[in-house]
Amino acid sequence: MKQLLLLGVLGLPAFAQWAPFEMIWNVEGSTAADVSFLLDAPAGRAGFVAARNGHLYTGDGKRLRLWGVNFSFAASFPPKELAPAVAAHLARFGVNCVRIHHHDWRSPRGLIDSAYSDSRHLHAGNLDRLDFLVAELKKRGIYVDLNLNVARAFQEADGVKDASETGYAKALTLFDPRMIELQREFATAYLTHRNPYTGNEYRNEPAVALVEILNENSLIESWVRGRLRGQGFDPKTADRTWGDIPASYERDLTALWKAWAKTDLPRLDPKDFASASAERFRKEAEFYMHLEEKFYREFQAFLKQDLGVKAPVVGTSVHGGGLPPYPILRSTAQMDVVDAHTYWQHPRYVDDPVTRRRGFEIANTPQVDQPGRGALAALARAAVAGKPFIVSEVNEPYPNEYGAELIPLLAAYGGLQDWDGLFWYSFEHSSAENWKPRPPGHFDIRQDAVKMSQLAASAVIFQRGGFRAGRTTLVRNYTPEQVAESLRLKSTEQPWFTPGLNPAIAAMAAVRVGRFDDKRGAVPRARPEEAVRSGTGELMWRKGLLTGGSKGVAMVVGRMGGVKASAGRMDVESETGFGAVLLVELDADSLLLTAGGRTANEGMKWNQARTSTPETGTAPMLIEPFKAVVTLRGFKRGARLSYVALDGAGRPMGTPRVAEESGGRWKLFLDAAAPWYRVELR
Fold first, then answer.
1. Residue 524 confidence (pLDDT) above 90
2. CB contact at 8 A, 430 and 436
3. pLDDT (tens digit, 9 = 90+) per residue, 81-109?
4. Domain assignment of residue 594, yes or no
């Protein structure tokens, strides 16, 4: 026994009893797990998406909840012969919006035509493939979210000074006049382009749900992180995303500061924050917030008034749990929609000093153990009263052994919080002709059988409002001083950066930021509890275990091994130590049941601390067979329930089994090497 335990820790034969499970995407027709009935086709059928009264609505006034995925790089340019299958696959999983992201790279991975020395020409072939994809998505009832600036590499030929040193120009795009001019030029070319397959320019396309100006880009963040020092970086070795700005731009920014401050004071370096007076610190924080507010106000006016863009506009996302959200929110809350990103235990990349191989490290712990410190809190802190709220990027990156918790957790609490959109990052980074079995990256979910099965079931939960919105909304108001001083609070105050606030408050009720200019500040107080119940009574979060039940929905998520957990009409007795079981009604006579734990690659090995996988393994992906007895109730006595495991395409595997019925309870014995089941009532 000790020998087997040791081998499991070292990761040698730990996956010997696991089973290969391939998600099959290019199939025809409907499947037993198909939830495309949630979609209203074609997208934009009733007119343009509108932001009003704090939420998103379709053209005919119906509430719109976006259940989305990200397509990054070449994923947005599939071969035209595969685009219909791509759209059909997403629709079967309930996806009703695709965020077209990271596509402002140079071709062949992006829309910028690398045949030119500048970055001002769109690649005709990739644009045509994107157009065709958008048309196919629209047919299926799937909207798109168009990003304008993510990682564009400005060139010397663009008339950008020191272009080779600017990386992805984070922070610079918010104040440099030439870069702002080039962003407007790109937006004009892109959004006035007529898609020949829909007949509409993108600015007049009702299938465009959102337009985002910037991605994870903030002067405030750059200041706090020490990236406005003008030290530059070596473009051959340094991080092009988060490098320091070049010296020439530091001089420009300092000149703007001195003109705005009407003084010759040098700008503060992060090492000077602690010793700066409150007045001095706030003055400079106000300067960066002023620049951001000016940029977003003017760029939104350009999009709406000059170009006539119909879709709601997003500024940028609140991102980085270690950074207070309020200074960025003060700027972005001017926009139509507020956005936030978070990753539970984003990999920290490290280079081996001997082999030079790039590896990663994660803590590899579950967020269900920390109701006030996980993704829910990191996102809920950024919602603003009176504004639609979306999460355009979120994930618990692979290979975290607790990744089965994320999608059901946020689908449930996204309902309690009354959010307007959840987008999983990412579905894929590669073009569809390369959607073959292979070890996935940290972020792609296409091959992850547990997350993909949950994607379908949770689409039903989120889009149908399976868990009710909080009966009351707890509003936090901040003074201007609190907004600025949040940047100097200790890291122990994250993610809320609001001293005195119960960090588990988002598991109790809907929360919003009200004002950023309140005279005294007002923060709701709630007593910390061992077990956190939502005000609706539908969700209970004990340390390590989340249960939720409502009409048509039941879920048990977390540490369930060896305990009997009850939720709604479902009891779960699991042999598997950690995972998630979801039950959703598809219609009056059928249900979708998912039961998933860990996933891995064939031959993957963890290090002894289980914080990294020095050997990533190969395809196929493996799933931990989830073994449990699920007992259902609430059906008519004498009813006959049958259930069958589903394959990677959502098709039945073998002959359905009949559930054992006794006293109005039906037992389902889950032991198949599959993460989902179809349940039929006869």
1. no
2. no
3. 999 999 999 999 999 999 999 999 999 99
4. no
Q: Is there a domain that residue 566 lies in?
A: no
From residue 85, alpha-carbon distances to 80, 82, 169, 216, 433 in Å are: 10, 5, 36, 31, 11
Per the CB < 8 A criterion, the answer to whether 492 and 468 are in contact is: no
Judge whether 374 and 493 are in contact, CB under 8 Å.
no
Longest dimension (CA), the chain: 84
636: left (phi over 0), alpha (psi -120 to 50) or beta: beta
CATH at 94: 3.20.20.80
Side chain identity at residue 115, one-letter code:
A
User: Is the residue at 347 inside a domain?
Assistant: yes
253-312 pLDDT per residue, tens: 999 999 999 999 999 999 999 999 999 999 999 999 999 999 999 999 999 999 999 999
Of how many residues is the chain composed? 682
Q: Say which residues have a Cβ less than 8 Å from residue 137's Cβ, sequence separation at least 6.
A: 43, 87, 90, 98, 143, 144, 207
Across-strand partners of 669?
Answer: 629
pTM of the predicted model, to two decimals?
A: 0.96
Q: Residue 211's domain spans which residues?
A: 2-469
The two structure tokens encoding residue 515:
């004002």
HEC profile of 191-240: HCCECCCCCCEHHHCCCEEEEEEECCCCHHHHHHCCCCCCCCCCCCCCCC
Q: Is 63 part of any domain? A: yes
- Between CA 644 and CA 673 the distance in angstroms is 12
Helices 177-191 and 278-301, interaxial angle, to 10°? 30
Q: Looking at the 3D structure of the chain, how many domains does it have?
A: 1
Count other Cβ atoms within 10 Å, centred on residue 282. 18
pLDDT in tens, 369-425: 999 899 999 999 999 999 999 999 999 999 999 999 999 999 999 999 999 999 999
Decide: 58 and 41 in contact? Cβ < 8 Å: no
